[in-house]
Design a protein that fits this description.
Layout: E1 4-10, H1 18-36, E2 41-47, H2 52-61, H3 66-77, E3 80-88, E4 91-92, H4 94-101, E5 112-119, H5 127-138, E6 142-143, E7 148-151, H6 161-185, H7 204-207, E8 217-218, E9 221-222, H8 246-251
Parallel strand pairs: 1-2, 1-3, 3-5, 5-6, 5-7
Antiparallel strand pairs: 3-4, 8-9
Helix pairs in contact: 1-6
Length: about 250
């Protein structure tokens, strides 16, 4: 089996960069979690600082060139993405946004993404939820639950930063492992034949649809269609709504 490909995209503007450092730590945590699951991985770092001229030329010419073209191709082929940005004015930087504006809308659909950010103070930590998650929600990517924000004081101090890094890396590894297992279950010996899983009669209510047959695809696993059956244990539901006429309400006064 070929190793998984993960792209680590960081938008730090300085050298050395705390943003790039956080990207490295997240990459290491993810790799350790994947290795523990017996999954090999190749992680490629991309520093947007080195692509600034190519990004500008793309906006002027409409065509990606040089290292930017290579980065966009690698992004399309990647199995997952780790991306980190500095925080400017309570959101991601212009360089970070300029790069993602050039990414094709279909390139990230269904792709696992770990989002992280750095900032001068922890008061900006909400930008993970107010800025980064909506951006990758637009791309229809699968963002891991734990986003990592690292303030300046977090580096080199005894805080929970490393624990958050390890948790986020483990979540990305688990998402990749689940996706890899799902793809394996959908093929037989490298062919495109879809496996069918038996339907548990006790869970038929979950799959019933309006046409009286079970849904043919649930979380990527094809299931056999079964005729609708009457369920023995039906919910009583809500009582019928009764409306008292206004005239009767007046009589009761």
């Amino acid at each position: 089996m070929k190793p998984l490909k993960i792209l680590t995209i960081t938008a730090g503007l300085s050298e050395p960069s705390s943003t790039a450092l956080l990207g490295e730590q997240l990459s290491e945590a993810t790799q350790q979690s994947l290795n523990a699951l017996g999954i090999s991985v190749e992680i490629t770092p991309i520093h947007l600082r080195s692509l600034t001229k190519d990004i500008t030329n793309h906006y002027l010419t409409g065509f990606p060139m040089g290292e930017l073209a290579t980065a966009l191709d690698a992004l399309t082929e990647a199995d997952a993405v780790i991306t980190v940005t500095p925080t400017f004015k309570a959101t991601y930087t212009g360089l970070f946004k300029s790069f993602w504006d050039l990414v094709d809308d279909e390139a990230m659909v269904g792709k696992p993404v770990l989002v992280a950010a750095t900032g001068g103070t922890a008061r900006h930590s909400l930008m993970i939820d107010t800025a980064l998650r909506p951006l990758f929600g637009y791309f229809k990517a699968h963002v891991v639950p734990t986003g990592v924000f690292a303030a300046t004081d977090d580096f080199g101090s005894d805080t929970s930063l490393q624990g958050r890094i390890n948790r986020a890396g483990a979540e990305l590894a688990q998402m990749l492992a689940w996706k890899l297992g799902s793809q394996t279950a959908l093929t037989k010996e490298g062919t495109s034949e879809i496996e069918t899983a038996p339907v548990d009669p006790a869970s038929e209510e979950i799959f019933d649809d309006l046409d009286g047959v079970n849904s043919g695809d649930f979380f990527g696993i094809a299931v056999e269609k079964q005729p609708r059956q009457e369920h023995k244990h039906k919910s009583p539901g809500l009582k019928e709504l009764t409306v008292t006429p206004f005239e009767q309400l007046l009589k009761n006064l």
